[in-house]
Amino acid sequence: MASSSLSVVLLLCLASAVSAQLSSTYYDKSCPSALSKIQAGVAAAVASDRRMAASLLRLHFHDCFVQGCDASVLLNETSVGGNERGAFGNVGSLRGFEVIEQIKKDVEAVCKKPYSNNGSVVSCADILAVAARDSVVALGGPSWEVKLGRRDSTTASVAQANQDLPPPFLDVAGLNASFAGKGFSLTDMVALSGGHTIGMAQCQNFRNRLYNEPNINTTYATKLKLNCPTSGGNTNLAPLDDDTATPPNPDLFNNDFFINLQSEKGLLHSDQVLYNATAPAGATEGIVNGFASSQAAFFSAFASAMVKMANLSPLTGSQGQVRTVCSIPN
Ligand code: HEM
């Protein structure tokens, strides 16, 4: 067996061993209302800003891909290892920090107070994992069980964030390498890319595609160019999923993202390459077609890939800590 496949197998074994230490009943005694408080906090945030659901989903992804799901992404500038918030894929882009901080306060207020962990019970990493799930559900997407008991890191890693968060100019080989390195299959990677059925991207992340790539729908490109000129307007926003529903429903979690790829209406380069992708992974085109023709297939693959994501190298037992404030180590 090639050494890369061997390490993926080892990674998967490790992930399932670690997830065995997480449990869906972890807070049943110490904080029985934790889950309902998180759900209420997400619902309130999404009611005042529907995009927040997308932002919370992305926050969990960017947490888990760097040092595992340990809330390292939430730490502020003074953290050992630097500030992941300042990494290339995060700076000026990640949102939702204040929502998580508010949920943390609301949750702790209803927990039984222990003498350890500075009196804190529910980890910021668990809040991120549950909030991501509740955000997807709030916009009509699938649900999945989130196992609990992750602990928070005392350090972050801006270097690892810069290395491990996939940039939008990657082709299928690069995307596959990035996700396979974390133990995800090609199908997982395509399903997770379907997270782009919600949320927005900034002009600077899709300008090159608009003006230089041949495989983009002309009407779609013309519309986008109005708000994303050749220079300037770097932070102007466009929906990642130009929804096909009438009237349009860009805030709904559905499989339109994949239907759009079939008509060359992917916003990011890294999204459109999943369709009409060339070697080594032309196989992604078939996966896109499968998800475009069956929302149920997409939902099921997305949910199982999110479970894998939430189980990436959590700190458990006496590792790490339960932070009192999510942006600062205790
Ligand atoms: C496959 C590799 C991926 C790449 C290259 C990528 C890249 C990006 C980029 C460039 C943006 C726009 C950021 C901005 O302009 O401010 C974005 C937004 C977003 N991404 Fe990804 N992403 C990937 C995978 C994922 C995954 C796995 C998820 C979750 C399952 C996800 C969820 C989101 C969401 C929901 C947004 C919108 C956030 C908001 O509106 O605040 N992405 N992504």
UniProtKB/TrEMBL annotation:
Annotated positions binding Ca(2+) 1: 63, 66, 68, 70, 72, 84
Keywords, in A-Z order: Calcium, Disulfide bond, Glycoprotein, Heme, Hydrogen peroxide, Iron, Metal-binding, Oxidoreductase, Peroxidase, Pyrrolidone carboxylic acid, Secreted, Signal
Main location group: secreted
Residue numbers binding Ca(2+) 2: 197, 241, 244
UniProt-listed InterPro entries: Haem_peroxidase, Haem_peroxidase_sf, Peroxidase_pln, Peroxidases_AS, Peroxidases_heam-ligand_BS, Secretory_peroxidase
Any GO MF annotation of the entry: metal ion binding
Residues at which heme b binds: 196
Note describing how the cofactor binds: Binds 2 calcium ions per subunit. Binds 1 heme b (iron(II)-protoporphyrin IX) group per subunit.
Compartment annotation: Secreted
Top-level EC class as recorded in UniProt: oxidoreductase
Domain Plant heme peroxidase family profile: 21-330
PANTHER family linked to this entry: PEROXIDASE, PEROXIDASE 72-RELATED
The protein, known as: Peroxidase
